[in-house]
Design brief:
Shape: globular
Distance between the termini: 16 Å
Number of helices: 4
Order of helices and strands: HHHH
Radius of gyration: 15 Å
Number of strands: 0
Strand content: under 5%
Helix content: 55-70%
Length: 104
């Protein structure tokens, strides 16, 4: 969160950092709440990552990024329907050590 110098990840202009990190956040947006029980860190401006949230929200409002988000999120929904994440969810549910990426 502190590394974001904004409004983009590394400054005033869109960069490769934004173009590569944004698709990853869509996977995180999908997986973290469903599988690991995390809150929606990309929409909680008052949450633990406010700069990340503002950056993500700003990009998501841009038409090209909104389309990318839609397409990727739809893909993960399809994969979930096919059972892609069932083994991961079972492993997390069976964990007794508390070390499986649970939100602090």
């Amino acid at each position: 969160n502190n590394a974001i110098v904004g409004p983009y990840l590394v400054g005033e202009q869109l960069s490769l950092a934004d173009l590569t990190w944004y698709p990853t956040t869509i996977f995180m947006e999908f997986m973290l709440p469903r599988v690991f029980g995390w809150p929606d860190v990309f929409r909680e401006v008052q949450g633990p990552f406010p700069k990340l949230c503002l950056w993500w929200t700003q990009l998501t409002q841009e038409p090209a990024f909104e389309k990318v988000r839609h397409d990727i999120y739809k893909y993960w929904e399809d994969m979930e329907t096919k059972g892609q994440f069932k083994p991961i969810m079972e492993e997390i549910a069976a964990d007794t050590t508390g070390l499986k990426f649970k939100y602090p």
